[in-house]
Design a protein that fits this description.
The protein has 132 residues and is mainly α. 72% of the residues lie in helices and 0% in strands. The chain has helices at residues 2-16, 20-48, 58-84, 93-102, 107-114, 126-131. The longest helix is centred in the N-terminal third of the chain and has 29 residues, at 20-48.
Amino acid sequence: MAILASGIVMSHYAHFNLSPVTQITVQQTFRTFAFLAESCVFAYLGMAIFSFSHSFKPAFVIWTLILCLVGRAINIFPISVIVNKFREHQIDFKKQFIMWFSGLRGAIAFSLALHFAIPKREAKSDSEHYIW
C-alpha cells in the first residue's frame, strides 16, 4: 500500500520534472505494459476455457447478463448524476452508457472466480444447483 500511495503522490511531481520527449516516452511505455498485461489476462482466460469442464445453461447465462446490466445501470447512472453536481466537466449520457456497458468484460472477475474454492455438495433442487 505504501508503494502504491507513493507512486500516486510522486507521479504528479515526477511527471512534470521530465522533459516533454521523456514524458511522451514514459506514457507510451506504461501504455505498452498495460496492454501486454491485459493481453496476458485475456490469453489466460482463453486457455482456461478449455481446461475446465463446463455445463452450458442458456437460461443461466441470459439471466446473469440481464442482472449484471441492471445492477450496473442502478449504480452508474445515479452516481453519475450525483457526481455531475460537483464537477465542472459533466459526464454526458454517451460516456455514462460506455461506463455502463464496458463493465461486462470481467477478465479479473473470471480469473478470481477460477481460484475460488467451493466445496462440493449435493443440490436439493434445480434452482439451488444454479446458486452453488
